[in-house]
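Observation: inputs received (chain + coenzyme A).
Thought: call the complex predictor directly.
Action: predict_structure
Action Input:
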Amino acid sequence: MTGVLDFDEMSYAGQKRLRFESLPSQIKDRRGRLIKLRAYEATDFEGLKEMYDTFEPKGLESGLPPLDDQARLRWLNCVVSDLFNVLAVYKGRVIGHSALDLSCAPSCPEYLIFIKKGFRNCGIGTAFSMVMKRVSKEAGCEKVIVTVRTANTRAVKVFKKVGFEFTDEIEVERDMELKLKQAKTSRTKICKR
Ligand SMILES: CC(C)(COP(=O)(O)OP(=O)(O)OC[C@H]1O[C@@H](n2cnc3c(N)ncnc32)[C@H](O)[C@@H]1OP(=O)(O)O)[C@@H](O)C(=O)NCCC(=O)NCCS
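Observation:
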């Protein structure tokens, strides 16, 4: 069976229970570095926290990751307990993080992605977003949305390459939507609480 979503007993870090054909996967970035994309596990918390503690710039994208240490820790605790999280790992270090709120599948989860400085502009964000698109499809989502700063032209370019389209007027921040075509018979089993 593919893509089993099991929201049973929801300690969402029960994301251990979420299995997707698209994960884990491995990509080679433009510098030839092998990056593993895999689902977050509870033991990854310190590694993910380290990525965000050293992330630059903080607070730019919808205030994320929060500048204040305590606020950032609270935010991270919410993200890992409420969302489905995927890590990009290079030589054992977390260098990228992406998350989707799959608790609302098959509705419209919001997407977030952060790649650490030193790994940007090497094709990782695009490949990562393609994998997350496949994960969303496997989860049975009809669409995915993302909010992005208009000035963040690199993020806009990546999202457009993956298939996101703007859904609102030009503002400082804009919403983008990725429509997902589902196969007539979804092979994904969704067990809700
Ligand atoms: C936005 C982000 C996720 C993109 O990931 P990435 O790994 O850097 O992106 P990629 O290398 O896959 O692709 C970048 C693309 O944008 C292009 N690009 C680079 N700088 C650009 C700029 N200033 N304006 C427009 N396009 C730009 C690159 O040429 C590349 O396109 P190409 O593959 O056609 O050559 C990453 O840069 C990041 O985490 N940034 C900080 C946090 C952030 O902005 N998150 C998104 C919040 S919504």
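Thought: report the result.
Final Answer: Residues 16 and 41 are 7 Å apart (CA to CA). The helical segments are 45-53, 69-82, 124-138, 153-162.
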